[in-house]
């Protein structure tokens, strides 16, 4: 059945994920054990001079392992969302100072909100961390500087893959950079947990997958347009607060009417 297939695909992803993590973790443990073994043999042969260096290796390996588990925990902890009506344009403006500091001197930040906009039904903390994450990705994509446009508007989804979403309007938070962009292969994998093209220690590969999860849980959509050498635009389509409230009320009324 379709459900069984979906489940099997999920298990495959989980299998690949845990396999990769187990491999990394095992490498770190191997490093720690080897350092301990060597230190022990140095004690036995009476050459203590090399021992501090071995302890340093064991310590940094253990720290990396701890960092990995920490990130895993943060990822698996499905935070309960607390959606409330949020003025997304105001939220973006309130983060300008933080974003400017994050982006550095060579990247120009332009924040705009198009007119008085309806509120979005969204968890404000999660949206802030999503915006910060997107800005960090944009910064990393613009090593020689550039411009980051953060823009809030009201729009319908550009594509109509979801049959009932054709004329539904959303509050759209758009984050556009003039960076390196992504090729097809990167775009295809961008939402996969732990997918990163960044050097070890710089990227976790969790940012985009967490944003994807949060936007989906919120009842919104995420779309990316990216051109290698030109830049990337990420758009978060967030449900409008009134519409969300009306739909919830309709669903409740229907449930009452059908007695379900
Ligand atoms: P991380 O930033 O830790 O690598 P993410 O999940 O946030 O993890 O992003 C995954 C990958 O997607 C990045 O490593 C990068 O290759 C690509 N990516 C994300 N955002 C951008 C962007 N704005 N411009 C170019 N590439 C991006």
Automatic annotation (TrEMBL):
<feature type="domain" description="Histidine kinase">
    <location>
        <begin position="20"/>
        <end position="242"/>
    </location>
</feature>
<protein>
    <recommendedName>
        <fullName>histidine kinase</fullName>
    </recommendedName>
</protein>
């Amino acid at each position: 059945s379709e459900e069984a297939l979906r489940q099997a695909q999920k298990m495959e992803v989980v299998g690949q994920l845990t396999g990769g993590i187990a491999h990394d973790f095992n490498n770190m443990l191997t490093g720690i054990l080897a350092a301990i073994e060597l230190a022990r043999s140095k004690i036995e042969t009476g050459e203590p001079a090399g021992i501090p260096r071995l302890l340093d290796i064991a310590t940094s390996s253990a720290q990396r392992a701890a960092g990995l588990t920490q990130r895993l925990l943060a990822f698996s902890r499905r935070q309960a969302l607390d959606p409330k009506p949020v003025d997304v344009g105001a939220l973006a403006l309130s983060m300008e100072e933080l974003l400017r500091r994050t982006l550095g001197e060579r990247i120009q930040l332009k924040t705009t909100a198009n007119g008085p906009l309806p509120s979005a039904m969204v968890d404000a903390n999660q949206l802030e961390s999503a915006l910060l994450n997107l800005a960090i990705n944009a910064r990393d994509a613009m090593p020689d500087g550039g411009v980051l446009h953060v823009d809030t508007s009201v729009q319908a989804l550009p594509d109509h893959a979801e049959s009932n979403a054709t004329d539904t309007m959303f509050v759209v938070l758009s984050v556009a950079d003039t960076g390196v962009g992504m090729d097809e292969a990167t775009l295809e994998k961008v939402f996969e947990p732990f997918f990163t093209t960044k050097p070890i220690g710089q990227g976790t590969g969790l940012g985009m997958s967490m944003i994807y999860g949060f936007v989906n849980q919120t009842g919104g959509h995420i779309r990316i347009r990216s051109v290698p050498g030109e830049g990337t635009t990420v758009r978060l389509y967030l449900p409008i607060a009134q519409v969300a409230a009306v739909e919830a009320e309709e669903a409740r009324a229907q449930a009452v009417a059908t007695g379900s």
